[in-house]
């Protein structure tokens, strides 16, 4: 449930973009009517109307997501705050400059922020953030924690590069699909693979 809650804005972006892509005239009309005041020259070109519409839906969903947690007095974890800030900045720039470039860069910036935080924490502050997040549930040798941190750094780095490649080499529609698949397909597969790798250490600890 937490995973679905976290990826909720991305799911909405995909659905809204696909709808806008299938209904370009209506998407442009809605963007022009509701968002013209937030666009630099007040005009929404037809070719980016679907992206602007989907981005606006995502911004609204992100605000509601954070507001819900704050009203429920639930602690908002650091990763969700970083995600919220990046979508506000890059999503806002996409709408204002009516350019899809910014929203396409957002996943890469987010991945590299995560990877950079892990790397700097491990190298400079000698603190393994993966261990800090998981040590209450899993007991592992220190060498395995270090290896796990490096694996996550590599994952975020590669996913950032993959997003750039898809954004530059393929259509916006293909990029939107990749963005969804990376969250609901690639990341869960990566986590499952990590769990299988860690299982032998957990069994050894229990033994």
UniProtKB/TrEMBL annotation:
Mitochondrion is among the record's keywords: no
InterPro entries with a match to the protein in the record: YciB (IPR006008)
Keyword terms of this UniProt record: Cell inner membrane, Cell membrane, Membrane, Transmembrane, Transmembrane helix
Annotated transmembrane regions: 51-71, 78-97, 109-125, 145-167, 173-192
Pfam name, any one: IspA
Superkingdom in the source lineage: Bacteria
Compartments, record wording: Cell inner membrane
Membrane topology: Multi-pass membrane protein
HAMAP family reported in the protein's UniProt record: YciB
Family statement: Belongs to the YciB family.
Protein's job: Plays a role in cell envelope biogenesis, maintenance of cell envelope integrity and membrane homeostasis.
Alphabetical list of NCBIfam families matching this protein: PRK00259.1-3 (NF001325)
Protein name: Inner membrane-spanning protein YciB
Organism of derivation: Undibacterium curvum
Taxonomic lineage from the root: Bacteria, Pseudomonadati, Pseudomonadota, Betaproteobacteria, Burkholderiales
Annotated gene: yciB
């Amino acid at each position: 449930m937490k995973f679905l809650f976290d990826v909720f804005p991305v799911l909405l972006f995909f659905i809204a973009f696909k709808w806008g892509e299938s209904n370009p005239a209506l998407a442009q009309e809605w963007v022009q009517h509701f968002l013209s005041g937030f666009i630099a020259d007040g005009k929404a070109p037809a070719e980016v109307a679907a992206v602007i519409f989907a981005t606006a839906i995502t911004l609204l969903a992100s605000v509601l997501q954070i507001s819900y947690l704050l009203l429920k007095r639930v602690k908002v974890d650091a990763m969700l705050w970083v995600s919220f800030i990046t979508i506000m900045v890059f999503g806002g720039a996409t709408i204002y400059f009516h350019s899809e470039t910014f929203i396409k860069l957002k996943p890469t910036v987010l991945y590299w922020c995560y990877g950079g935080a892990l790397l700097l924490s491990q190298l400079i502050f000698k603190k393994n953030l993966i261990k800090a997040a998981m040590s209450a549930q899993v007991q592992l040798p220190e060498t395995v924690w270090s290896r796990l941190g490096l694996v996550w750094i590599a994952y975020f780095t590669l996913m950032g590069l993959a997003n750039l490649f898809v954004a530059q080499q393929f259509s916006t529609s293909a990029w939107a699909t990749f963005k969804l698949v990376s969250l609901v397909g690639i990341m869960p597969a990566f986590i499952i693979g990590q769990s299988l790798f860690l299982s032998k250490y957990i069994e050894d600890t229990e033994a």
